[in-house]
Amino acid sequence: MGEVWIRTLGNGLVRADRITEISSTRGSLHEDQGFLLKVIVEGKNHVLIDDSELQGSLGERLEYARHMEDALLLAMDEARASDASAVVSFEPERQRWSTAPVAVLTGRLPDVAGRLPEVVG
């Protein structure tokens, strides 16, 4: 069973098995629109979604955020079922979570000079 990582809004990665809380609040920019979804890892907040455009009452926005939390849990569970390590990311343009194996995401990245690294093993 591989590790599951969650991509943060700032393109960082947090290990899913270290998440102690998933929470949502009103938007960070405006009190009357948007929502913020974050995870807590070792006492530190990591923002996954900051949607300042979502309209509606606070209750409606937080209900939508709860659906996004549930979808994140489902994506994490599906990723854990895989043998390969995976990254779960939010796709804002599609308003959904996606999971990709780490091997697919990394591929064979060129080094700084543009050369492909040698395979060790």
Name some characteristics of this structure.
121 residues, alpha+beta, 4-stranded mixed beta sheet, 2 helices, 7 strands, 35% strand, elongated
Please, could you describe this protein's structure?
- The protein is of the alpha+beta class and 121 residues long.
- Helix content is 23%, strand content 35%.
- It has two helices and seven strands.
- The strands form two sheets. A four-stranded mixed sheet has the order 2-1-6-7. The chain has a three-stranded antiparallel sheet with strand order 3-4-5, with helices on one face.
- The chain is elongated.
- The relative contact order is 0.18.
- The model has no long low-confidence stretch (mean pLDDT 85).
Summarize the structure.
This protein is of the alpha+beta class and 121 residues long. It contains two helices and seven strands, in the order E-E-E-E-E-H-E-E-H. The protein is 23% helix and 35% strand.
Q: Please describe the biggest sheet, giving its number of strands, its sense, and whether it closes into a barrel.
A: 4 strands, mixed
Q: What is the rounded distance between the termini?
A: 21 Å
Share of helix, binned:
10-25%
Oligomer classification: single chain
How many helices in DSSP terms?
2
List the helices and strands and how they pair.
Blueprint: E1 4-7, E2 13-15, E3 19-26, E4 35-41, E5 44-51, H1 58-80, E6 86-91, E7 96-101, H2 102-106
Parallel strand pairs: 1-6
Antiparallel strand pairs: 1-2, 3-4, 4-5, 6-7
